[in-house]
Amino acid sequence: KVIFMFLYKLLLTMNATSWMVIIYAIKEEWTIGNLPAHLFGIMLLTIPVLLSWLSLLLTRFLGEESPESYYKEMTLADKEFLPIYLGYFFVSVGISKWFTMIVVYLIVFIFTFLSQTQYFNPIYLLFGYHYYHVLTETGTQIFIIKKGPVVRSVNELRFNHLCRLNDSTFIVM
């Protein structure tokens, strides 16, 4: 299980950071063979979507948790991390040398992996998921990823099957 969680965390980190390389490749008009650069760019854009879909499929192999009974506060966090992704785009567009891009990407990848910010994935928004900061009755702050309509009130929070991603992050399955 430890190896699965490590590999799963690597996959989530790739989901979170792959945009840097993809935007850089599109900007530099990379391609393979005789494929036009714009078609190759479109193919590259599907990679994070497919990896995100795979990571959601793999959540069924995570252990389930018993949901907390009562929640004191809840805030929607959907827009909270979008500036980070815009930053990835701007960094990728601003780098002109591939070696510099590799170094910057590796630094961002390592910091993202270690900081566990990879749990926010804007592609999940396209799949209908939303992100919430939730304060439990016991004073613990947790991060919840949940599919469905936006929850507007703490009284509407209902989690039947929580899967633990780490000590403070859960996804509702």
Would you write up a description of this structure?
The protein is of the alpha+beta class and 173 residues long. The chain has five helices and six strands; from the N terminus they run ααββαααββββ. The chain has a six-stranded mixed beta sheet with strand order 1-5-6-4-3-2.
Number of strands: 6
Percent helix range: 40-55%
- Coarse morphology: elongated
If helices are DSSP runs of H or I spanning 4 or more residues, what is the number of helices?
5
Spans where pLDDT lies below 50 across 5 or more residues: none
Q: Topology as H/E string?
A: HHEEHHHEEEE
Main sheet strand line-up: 1-5-6-4-3-2
Strand content: 15-25%
Radius of gyration: 18 Å
Largest sheet: 6 strands, mixed
Task: Look at the structure and give the mean pLDDT.
Answer: 88
Structural class assignment = alpha+beta
Straight-line distance between termini: 19 Å
Secondary structure layout plus pairing:
Blueprint: H1 2-27, H2 37-58, E1 64-65, E2 71-76, H3 82-94, H4 98-115, H5 122-126, E3 129-136, E4 141-147, E5 162-164, E6 169-172
Parallel strand pairs: 4-6
Antiparallel strand pairs: 1-5, 2-3, 3-4, 5-6
Helix pairs in contact: 1-2, 1-3, 1-4
Summary keywords:
alpha+beta, 6-stranded mixed sheet, 5 helices, 6 strands, 17% strand
Kindly summarize this structure in a few lines.
With 173 residues, the protein is an alpha+beta fold. α1 packs antiparallel against α2 and α1 packs across α3.
